[in-house]
Amino acid sequence: MILVDTGPLVALFDPRDSQHQRCRTALQSLREPLVTTISVLTEAFHMLSPASIGSDRLRDFIQRGGLTIWFMDPQGVERAFELMERYADHPMDLADASLIVAAEKLKTQKIFTIDRDDFETYRIQRGHRHKAIEIVG
Predict the structure, then answer these.
(1) To 10 degrees, the CA torsion angle through 5, 96, 126, 81?
(2) Domains in the chain, ordered, with CATH?
(3) What is the pTM assigned to this prediction?
């Protein structure tokens, strides 16, 4: 399973995005199921603009099963807030925090992102250990 960040979703569905072709090529090489969070989708739809063709294409992609949505429970929300405080000097937004929480809960380290600087800093907690994220794409 691969978690998907906002950047690739915007780039994939907005052909004018400078990362469009790179993300399309990366997507074609991925063979694992793709998962994202509501926070990431909120950002992506905001950046694509609700009435855009990109938003329509993203909705179609989700409805065809190209992307599964993972929902945080109350404990996940608390964990996201905790992460946002821990990385306040960076800073971490709710979308990024939701992906780290999803990675911890779903036991994956793979995230499809174009935001290397942030995700190379963040760590996934596994028991008492903190693991680096495997950036995909």
Answers:
(1) -150
(2) 2-136 (3.40.50.1010)
(3) 0.93
